[in-house]
Design goal:
- The chain is an alpha+beta fold and 183 residues long.
- The chain is 40% helix and 30% strand.
- Strands 4-5-6-7 form a 4-stranded antiparallel beta sheet, covered by helices on one side. Strands 10-9-8-11 form a 4-stranded mixed beta sheet, with helices on one face. Strands 1-2-3 form a 3-stranded antiparallel beta sheet.
- Helix 2 (50-77) runs antiparallel to helix 3 (80-102).
- The longest helix is centred in the middle third of the chain and has 28 residues, at 50-77.
């Protein structure tokens, strides 16, 4: 069971925190239900949202810069263990930044593809829009997809234009799409 931090604003409506940012779940659900999208069955590509991209770029960029400074200092003073740790940290920062910039979710006519996973719309048993546990300490807006093969996929909705993404999926899978209003 995950613990979730509830906050109450002036109007006494329940609000939750997502990665340090507050969002109102009811408002998000209302915006989702009110929006209309024309789906032509074409290919759609969704990338990370700009605030999330900026946040992660600053984080991994600072790790990389500090590791480079440490590497330069350890080369001058011949600290070999610190030098190897610095090289590992630089590699970690570069790989993480590449993953962040290359991350995308693609919706084709018959499937959703993200990373190495490919989910066919015909194989989806249910898709639930909910607030879920992203990591042990963070909660966020998620789309939980359960396939007919009993596999569970959790797509975190930290992407640009999540309502359009959800509406397209709702249009393509129909009644299998479930919205959890009270969490």
């Amino acid at each position: 069971m995950t613990s979730v931090l509830y906050l109450y604003d002036i109007k006494n409506t329940k609000t939750r925190t997502e990665g340090g940012q507050m969002f109102n779940w009811k408002k998000f659900i209302d915006d989702f239900k009110k929006s209309k999208i024309v789906d032509n069955g074409e290919k759609y590509v969704f990338r990370l949202s700009n605030p999330y991209l900026l946040h992660m770029t600053v984080f991994f960029g600072s790790i990389g810069v500090l590791a480079v400074i440490s590497l330069i200092n350890s080369i001058e003073n011949k600290y070999y263990i610190r030098m190897s740790v610095s090289v590992i940290l630089i590699g970690y920062a570069v790989v993480s930044l590449l993953k962040i910039f290359l991350y995308k979710i693609i919706i084709e006519k018959d499937y959703i593809k993200y990373g190495k996973c490919e989910i066919k719309f015909s194989d989806i048993k249910t898709a639930t829009l909910t607030i879920g546990s992203v990591t042990r300490t963070k909660v966020g807006k998620c789309l939980e997809i359960i396939s007919n093969k009993k596999k569970e996929y959790v797509l975190r909705l930290n992407i640009h234009n999540p309502i359009k993404f959800l509406k397209i999926i709702e249009n393509r899978i129909g009644d299998k799409f479930i919205v959890t209003e009270d969490v």
